[in-house]
Amino acid sequence: xxxxxxxxxxxxxxxxxxxRLRCSPMKGHSHVYWYRQLPEEGLKFMVYLxxxxxxxxxxxxxxxxSAEFPKEGPSILRIQQVVRGDSAxxxxxxxxxxxxxxxxxxxxxxxxxxxx
Amino acid sequence: DAKTxxxxxxxxxxxxxxxxxxxxxxxxGTDYIHWYRQLPSQGPEYVIHGLTSNVNNRMASLAIAEDRKSSTLILHxxxxxxxxxxxxxxxxxxxxxxxxxxxxxxxxxxxIP
Lengths: 116, 113
Hints:
The complex is a heterodimer of chains A (about 120) and B (about 110).
Chain A: E1 5-7, E2 10-13, E3 19-24, E4 31-37, E5 43-50, E6 53-56, E7 65-68, E8 75-79, E9 88-95, E10 106-107, E11 111-115
Chain B: E1 9-13, E2 18-23, E3 31-38, E4 45-50, E5 55-56, E6 61-64, E7 70-75, E8 84-92, E9 107-112
Parallel strand pairs in B: 1-9
Antiparallel strand pairs in B: 2-7, 3-4, 3-8, 5-6, 6-7, 8-9
């Protein structure tokens, strides 16, 4: 039973390019969360998605960042026109949908984005 | 969001028990207490959670104060593989859409061989 899969593991981009980070949740999981971790800091929540719905995007920067979780395929975190400050580890987590059941989150190994 | 307070770092000897404290004086009645840990260069992993009663699983035990204003994660016999940052998190499930976990700075646990 595969865990949460994130790819690529490492991504290098030059300033101004686009970065696309992919997350395949665990089988049967319909909820996805994205977090960002700057060096030597804690994880910061970015966005929470259900299939084809954004539930909570309160942690997403207003510009250049977008996320989707289509009916078919992985969840994508897209960063347009990257800047050096976007360099960080980006983690995805998934959970099944069971209202009020307090399901735990399963995290992937992350994508390390480096902006040159 | 209700906040938690943890020591920045702790050390423990290998094969000794470890008690990791967490204060959450503003906890509400619908907040669950969750613990996750993050090993170096990895994503966080779930450790344990509870609401009011003490909880045990194969990884750890969670002791919750009677007034729920504090809790303690107990690793019964620390190994080198337990060296990680441990996060104590309050999770509110009373409203749909509030299920996200809000991470603080956690406690960096160092295990001394």
